[in-house]
Design the sequence.
């Protein structure tokens, strides 16, 4: 009996680990648009796309993130692609989106808080960094939040 229970538990853990990450099609359009602009036209174009309709568009944060993306380019080389790591639906109108950005020589990590206002999604907050535990928090890795 213990062996069967252990085997079932192990199978459940392995199945959870093997779950596929969400694909790009599950991202809100504003996030996809900015990522496409990043590849085609650079960091400023990406942030401009993400700030359409955003309540933080006139704050200093967008320019901080432009500088962060450009710093990754200086450290890791040309931006190549992205991967959706996880999308957490907080409510029917709010999502936390976790992504990895691939550069020629290394990754960077990002997160977006997106809110569906009327007919479109808006970016409410966003950020990038080189350390996934700092950008995403330990809870994404299965550890409890340290507050």
Sequence:
């Amino acid at each position: 009996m213990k062996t069967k229970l252990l085997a079932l538990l192990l199978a459940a853990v392995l199945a959870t680990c093997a779950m596929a990450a969400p694909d790009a099609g599950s991202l809100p359009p504003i996030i996809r648009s900015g990522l496409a602009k990043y590849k085609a036209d650079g960091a400023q174009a990406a942030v401009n796309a993400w700030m359409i309709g955003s309540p933080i568009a006139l704050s200093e944060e967008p320019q901080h993130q432009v500088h962060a993306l450009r710093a990754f380019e200086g450290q890791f080389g040309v931006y190549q692609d992205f991967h959706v790591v996880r999308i957490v639906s907080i409510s029917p109108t709010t999502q936390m989106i976790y992504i990895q950005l691939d550069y020629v020589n290394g990754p960077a990590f990002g997160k977006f808080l997106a809110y569906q206002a009327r007919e479109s999604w808006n970016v409410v907050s966003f950020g990038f960094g080189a350390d996934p535990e700092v950008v995403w928090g330990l809870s994404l890795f299965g550890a409890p939040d340290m507050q």
Observations:
- The domain at 28-136 is CATH 3.10.450.50 (Nuclear Transport Factor 2; Chain: A,).
